[in-house]
Amino acid sequence: MLGVVSIDLIALDLDGTLLDPHEQVSQANRLAIAAALAEGVRVVLVTGRGVEAPSQIARDLELPLPVICCHGALTKDIQTGRTIGHIPIPAQHAKPMLEYAEIRGIDVAVYLEERFYRVTGARRYMSDMHGPEWRDVASFRDLPHVAPTFLRFLGNKAVEAVRTTFADLPLHFKFETWGEFEECAVTSRDATKKHALENLCKTYGVARERVLAIGDSRNDVPMLRWAGIGVAMANAQPDVRKTVGRVTAGNSDDGVARAIERYVLEPLRERSA
């Protein structure tokens, strides 16, 4: 195993990666993460979700590191509640987008002050949209006049509005497809999973060559390509798998556990043999 760089940090996407199709962490994934932690390897969650879900999962898995959420726009220390990094959408761009959406009945969710806000009566596309971090408002005009962390344009009509009306804005547009459902997450141009993970690694003195990153979405690709070892899930889109190169099993088949075993635990055992 001479010349093989050991892994010091594992970065895990949630949906379609660590979480199975029932949004649970499998026993095999739990055991693999616990084994990596026991070897002194750090594990960080990197997700497009808001703070609540990754914080709960991190506590459940006993992960001491901060969570990177909101597509990299927010990094939160769940032990202290301290915000480590926050890159919101400039208000001068967010406000006209929300006004346009509300006037035309376009479905959008606003993540602001660690809560999602939607206009009352908006459709709930996913089960987590009924969770405690979701709030209804009569109008987006009722929200505090501060820059939101990110926006989610939900459904085909909303995504098309982003493509045709807002594409020229100096923002980052993250288009994703979940079966027949489309959405576009909008963040500051500087808010990406790659950027947030790179900053966190600098804080802990972890070189990129010693990072294993695993994900399934297009917005994971820059992070996967940045890491020393980037691995795509078998359930990722074909273009994601092709771009990343390395592929593990799907999220219904313990793909995270298999990647941790192959790239972290097996090399450790061989070096100690």
* Strand residues, percent: 15-25%
What global shape is seen?
Answer: elongated
Beginning-to-end CA distance, first to last residue: 11 Å
* Structural class by sheet pairing and helices: alpha/beta
Count of extended strands? 13
User: How is the largest sheet built, in terms of strand order?
Assistant: 8-7-6-9-11-10
By CATH, the topology of the largest domain is Rossmann fold
CATH superfamily of the largest domain: HAD superfamily/HAD-like
Ranges where pLDDT stays below 50 over 5 or more residues in a row are: none
The largest pleated sheet is described as:
6 strands, mixed
Question: Helical amount among residues, as a percent range?
Answer: 25-40%
H/E topology pattern: EHHEHEEEHEEEEHEEHEHEHH
Short description:
The protein has helices spanning 14-18, 27-38, 52-60, 91-104, 156-166, 193-204, 221-226, 238-244, 255-272, and strands at 9-12, 42-45, 67-69, 74-76, 83-86, 108-112, 115-119, 134-137, 150-154, 171-178, 181-188, 211-215, 229-232. By secondary structure, the protein is α/β, with parallel strands linked by helices. It folds into two domains: 9-86 and 191-272, Rossmann fold (3-Layer(aba) Sandwich); 91-188, 2-Layer Sandwich (Hypothetical Protein, Haloacid Dehalogenase-like Hydrolase, Chain: A, domain 2).
How would you portray this structure in words?
The chain is of the alpha/beta class and 273 residues long. It folds into two domains: 9-86 and 191-272, 3-Layer(aba) Sandwich (Rossmann fold); 91-188, Hypothetical Protein, Haloacid Dehalogenase-like Hydrolase, Chain: A, domain 2 (2-Layer Sandwich). Helix content is 34%, strand content 23%. It has a six-stranded mixed beta sheet with strand order 8-7-6-9-11-10. A four-stranded parallel beta sheet has the order 2-1-12-13. Helix 7 links the parallel strand 12 (211-215) and strand 13. Helix 2 (27-38) packs parallel to helix 9 (255-272).
